[in-house]
Design goal:
five-stranded antiparallel beta sheet, four-stranded antiparallel beta sheet, alpha+beta, single chain
Length: 274
């Protein structure tokens, strides 16, 4: 969507398996940290509620809702009430190689559309049944679904000027992103970040929120919790150690922030990831 993207948020998608251009997965989790990729991603929610953010715009999502992540949109998910269950259909660009969908952009939130529900149920039923021709049936349901989206939920793409404006704001904060990535374990204040952009603290906070959809300190804490998730998965360091290593002076505040952003405690996250 935007001309410039933070390469550190880029998610590399695994290669196609058996040349099948749709990857279908069922998830049960509380959060997804900000990232982007070129692929179209369809998230159909089965249970629970959460907030999904796409390019700074947040949506309250519940069971029966579909979130459409258009290619190259930065997106994340957060649940404050525990893990949510959802289907994820990741559609590789090659899926559309022989049909005309050039430039198609879909609305990000589709609420309780029975046709959408039917398509997802059929696709995942075929995946679980293991019958001959299951891949062809899954593709047919995905074609039905994307045709339905094209007919009923296509939206006008952002103007070039809108894209340039958002790219300009993100480029202006690139030094902030680099600084946070390097110094997240240290004390960081909005005053420091504002000075880096040669702005007053109040003006910096206003335009940072306009560019990213969140406050500067929310961005810092999300980055820190993302690093904490990596440490919980890859090391045996204690919770207090990891809190300190990711810039949290108070382990209780770290635990509260971790639970708020991921929907579970650090210990539960580590147990789930092992």
């Amino acid at each position: 969507m935007e001309a410039q993207k933070d390469s550190r948020l880029y998610e590399s998608i695994p290669p196609l398996q058996n040349h099948f251009s749709v990857k279908l997965t069922r998830y049960h989790q509380g959060s997804v940290m900000p990232h982007w990729h070129e692929h179209l991603e369809l998230l159909y929610f089965l249970d629970g509620s959460c907030t999904v953010t796409l390019d700074g715009q947040s949506y309250a999502v519940g069971a029966g809702d579909l979130v459409v992540v258009n290619g190259s949109q930065i997106h994340s998910m957060r649940s404050e009430g525990g893990a949510v269950t959802y289907y994820c259909a990741l559609v590789y660009p090659s899926f559309f190689s022989d049909v005309d969908t050039a430039g198609a952009v879909f609305g990000n939130l589709i609420c309780r559309d029975p046709f959408v529900t039917s398509c997802f149920e059929e696709m995942f039923c075929e995946q679980g049944a293991g019958l001959p021709g299951a891949d062809m049936m899954q593709k047919s349901h995905m074609y039905r679904l994307t045709a339905h989206l094209l007919r009923h939920y296509a939206v006008t793409p952002p103007s070039e000027q809108d894209q340039r404006n958002r790219s300009f704001l993100r480029a202006r904060f690139h030094s902030v992103e680099l600084y946070v990535a390097k110094h997240y374990a240290e004390r960081i204040t909005t005053r420091q970040l504002a000075d880096m952009c040669y702005l007053s603290e109040g003006h910096f906070c206003r335009i940072f929120r306009a560019a990213t959809g969140k406050s500067a300190m929310a961005y810092v804490n999300e980055y820190r919790i993302g690093r904490a998730c990596t440490l919980l998965r890859r090391t045996e360091d204690g919770i207090t150690q990891i809190a300190a290593q990711t810039g949290f002076e108070d382990v209780n505040y770290f635990s509260r922030t971790f639970r708020r952003l991921t929907g579970q405690s650090p210990s539960a996250y580590r147990h789930q990831s092992t």
